[in-house]
Design brief:
With 106 residues, this protein is mainly alpha-helical. The N and C termini lie far apart (61 Å). α2 packs across α4. It has one domain.
């Protein structure tokens, strides 16, 4: 089942739920390579059904990458998200402990 990516938010949603992330990144890199090879951006965009904004966002993210670099980027983004969630949990735990201490002192 292939997806026609129409926006960056759709790609991010699909990546979040883990649907064909590798093939989506490969598609995007393929779109960028077509444009680099001389195919007009408007033609690439019309042929594959995505917006100018998506193209330029993808180019800023994936420009000059091969598929293995894109895979590594995705792995790092997932790890970063996990670390951010863990940090937020630790901050909540600290705040809860401070509130408990204030309630105990009063």
């Amino acid at each position: 089942m292939d997806f026609c990516i129409r926006s960056v938010s759709q790609l991010e949603l699909l990546c979040t739920i883990g649907l064909k992330v590798r093939s989506l990144q490969e598609q995007i890199i393929g779109f960028l390579r077509q444009a680099e090879a001389g195919m007009p951006i408007k033609e690439t965009r019309r042929k594959h059904g995505f917006s100018d904004a998506s193209f330029y966002k993808w180019r800023s993210t994936y420009g000059g990458m091969d598929t293995s670099a894109a895979k590594r980027l995705r792995e790092l983004e997932l790890e970063n998200g996990k670390l951010k969630r863990r940090l937020a949990e630790v901050h909540l735990d600290i705040h809860a402990a401070e509130l408990d201490q204030l309630a105990f002192d009063n």
